[in-house]
Input
Amino acid sequence: MFVRIVYATGDPGKIDKAAEGLNTEGRRLLADQPGYRGFGIFVDRDLGKLLVSTWWETEDAREGSNERLRQRRAEILEPFAATVAVDNYEAVVFHEAQQPGTGAAMRMTQVEFDPSDAELFADTFGGTVLPKLETLPGIARATLMLDKAQGRGLVGVIFTDRKALAASRAGQASARHEGSAKAHVTVTGLEEFDVVASEVRGD
Output
């Protein structure tokens, strides 16, 4: 699958209204697009950070939807967002242990690597990191998204609730350390979000 990530920052007091608009009108607009496979909305209410992921069967479907929806997305985000960044990735690993529900939380790791190591990273994540993540209590989903040409990636791990997210920090840090060393990956960012919505058809 192919993923578009929208990362917006703004006034924390306006973040819930923006998330609500994306979760209602945004969801309806997305559902009508060819090749649509799902979406997620993630918020950090304290700092005013909002992350939106949309999932697509093909790269062409992702690009076509962006042309059709760019203006309306900007209008929904405008009252909240002071900054907006849009990035594209390929989901090379998608593992769902259970559907995330109300109260779920996500940890996102940003990474950089030499583009020539993209396959090494994907293999290491699937063979070394994911088995360790699967042992963490409360894990719901783990995803590896790569921009192979630019040598950038995101690891998103969703847990059933904030308590499980907090309890997983040491365990995921150990897996992250081992995986990044084996795959020659540099971690450039680590963030945690509350999950507003996350529905992806991974089959």
